[in-house]
Amino acid sequence: MDHIDTKISKFLSYVLRHQPESIGLTLDSEGWADISTLIKCAVKQGKRLNYPMIEKIVATNDKKRFAISEDRKRIRAVQGHSAKRVNICYQEKIPPAVLYHGTATRFLDSIFKQGLVAGNRHYVHLSADEMTAIKVGQRHGKVAILKIDVQLMYEQGIKFHQAENGVWLTKAVPVEYISMK
Ligand code: HQG
């Protein structure tokens, strides 16, 4: 992604996951926004945005963060939301036996006390491969990789979901399922 695409992707992440009201946009409970309204709201704020630019971002985004509806009229972020009105009905899915979570070493004390919590977002994000977890953790500082005993969690009845872009989601991870990688 070039610099402009990254800027647009960050803007879309912000309004489609966190603060749609900052540009006067409304998301439905599944996180969908009307694309023509999104463009109008963005242009009003002085942003350059049009349908082909949005289509390009959706198609080329490195993490496949966004999806366009079948009728091509709506767009949503596929995961990562904090917006209160959004409550995406993710399908339940049988998870792999182990998943990883990348975090920063300064959070470890708290994590080993409280478990992993979703914080502002709606879910804790887990990944199937360690490389992804390392990248996620590095965003926060000196990286620490946690290994999650997902098989045991699943056997205890804890639900898992997978977003369209492959990110695994669960509401929280209690301490007993977490170990250092
Ligand atoms: C930590 C990016 C203290 C948690 C990524 C994380 C991901 C605790 C931070 C997606 C804690 C929250 C999400 C506890 C959790 N005490 N700290 N009890 N429980 N934490 O950004 O998972 O590029 O909300 O370890 O790739 O880092 O935006 O979550 O370090 O998929 O598309 O609290 O965001 O995707 O940070 O990242 P975040 P995350 P995008």
Question: What features would you describe in this structure?
Answer:
This is Probable RNA 2'-phosphotransferase. GO terms for molecular function: NAD+ poly-ADP-ribosyltransferase activity; tRNA 2'-phosphotransferase activity. Belongs to the KptA/TPT1 family. Its EC number is 2.7.1.-. Keywords: NAD, Transferase. This protein has 181 residues and is an alpha+beta fold. The chain folds into two domains: 3-77, RNA 2'-phosphotransferase, Tpt1/KptA family, N-terminal domain (Arc Repressor Mutant, subunit A), CATH 1.10.10; 98-180, ADP-ribosylation fold, CATH 3.20.170. Helices cover 32% and strands 21% of the residues. The protein has six helices and eleven strands. It has helices at residues 3-18, 35-44, 51-60, 108-114, 130-138, 150-155, and strands at residues 33-34, 66-68, 74-77, 98-104, 116-117, 124-126, 143-149, 161-162, 168-170, 172-173, 178-180. The strands form four sheets. Strands 1-3-2 form a three-stranded antiparallel sheet. It has a three-stranded antiparallel sheet with strand order 4-7-11. It is elongated and about 50 Å long. The model has no long low-confidence stretch (mean pLDDT 97). Ligand HQG binds at residues 13, 63, 65, 80, 103-104, 107, 110-111, 114, 116-117, 119, 121, 125, 136, 140, 167.
